[in-house]
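Let us work through a complete example step by step.
Step 1: write down the sequence.
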Amino acid sequence: MKDMKYIFETRMEVRDYECDIEGIVNNANYLHYTEHTRHLFLRSIGVSFADMHAKGVDAVVARVSMQFKTPLRCDDEFVSRLALHKEGVRFVFSQDIFRASDNQLSCRAKVEVVALVNGQLAITSPYDDVLAAYVSSKES
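Step 2: predict the structure and record it as tokens.
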């Protein structure tokens, strides 16, 4: 994932209830951070999950892989960035979370999303059209 071409970023802050007894962000919360980033990205380009669902089109997570690097702690600010490419029917979001104070990589995630049209796996969907301008060539 060298020379990642990020297409979106957002800034967030760790809340105290997201930390475990060790005082670091519990690993499950990184899933929330990455999901929230994807939702904000889609909203920023005018895509509404509710509108798509009403049309019978749903984007669902098929697989997630995460690597944890530098822990985030209570009140840390962080920047969540994403890149996007397509592999077959899967939209692959490469997502990195950086601690804002020193730009240290905290988490690296690969989230594979597929589209369902009327409950069936779709080879193409309206998501192909709305994401076409943002999909890069496959990341190495």
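Step 3: interpret the result. The radius of gyration is 16 Å.
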